[in-house]
Design brief:
The protein is mainly alpha-helical. The chain is 72% helix and 0% strand. The protein is built from 10 helices and no strands. It is globular. The mean pLDDT is 84.
Length: 209
């Protein structure tokens, strides 16, 4: 939803303007920034004793690291995942927003419709396939991410780390095939997601011609 709001705000900027160029360039860079480097960046930002938690505690009295560093928990993965997920949403959904033609809004107004009618009858139906396609793409990207989570959380929590634990642990006996089953499950899920994404992408391209 944050990505949709950013894309909607960008429609007010010129396609060849400075703001649009900066946002597009930044989104391209941030969407590819991941792995151990991203984990270190967030440790230096939200880790225990770092600037943001200290300032937040001094101003609001809220200590987000009261139970230990929040980054080293599964909920803490929200921060780095949103960091590369938001720009990816902007990159994938912005072409659909650009595909909304001003003539459609003018046609609705000519027929006596309001702005609400335009979004309910035209805007949302046209953008829905692109939105759900982008949502699937973001989920698939986060679902398969490994390096950042592995640098922050040592084991368990998410399926990629569970597979790692099964392959490297010397204390787990009698479940040698568990990692293979989990990996096969990921392959099946990714295949279903990519099939749905391709179908939604074809439907989206119909409105961009």
């Amino acid at each position: 939803m944050l990505g949709v709001l950013v894309c909607w705000a960008l429609t007010a900027a010129r396609p060849d303007g400075f703001v649009r160029a900066v946002v597009d360039s930044a989104s391209s860079v941030f969407a590819q920034f991941g792995g151990v480097m991203l984990a270190f960046a967030w440790i230096a930002t939200l880790g225990t004793g770092q600037l943001i938690p200290v300032v937040l505690k001094a101003v609001t009295g809220i200590d987000i690291n009261s139970g230990g560093s929040i980054l080293y928990t599964v909920p803490g993965l929200l921060f780095p995942y949103v960091y590369f997920g938001l720009p990816l949403m902007v990159l994938s959904f912005m072409p659909a927003m650009d595909g909304l033609r001003p003539q459609w809004g003018e046609a609705v107004a000519t027929l006596g419709g309001t702005r609400l009618h335009y979004w309910l009858r035209v805007g949302v139906p046209v953008l829905a396939p692109a939105f759900f396609g982008s949502l699937i793409l973001l989920f698939a990207n986060a679902f398969s991410s490994y390096a950042t989570a592995a640098a922050l959380i040592s084991q368990g929590g998410i399926i990629t780390l569970a597979i790692k634990q099964q392959l490297t642990s010397e204390t787990i006996v009698g479940v040698a095939n568990t990692a293979g089953v989990l990996a096969l499950g990921m392959v099946v899920i990714m295949a279903v997601l990519m099939t749905l994404y391709s179908a939604l992408e074809r439907r989206t391209r119909r409105w961009q011609r």
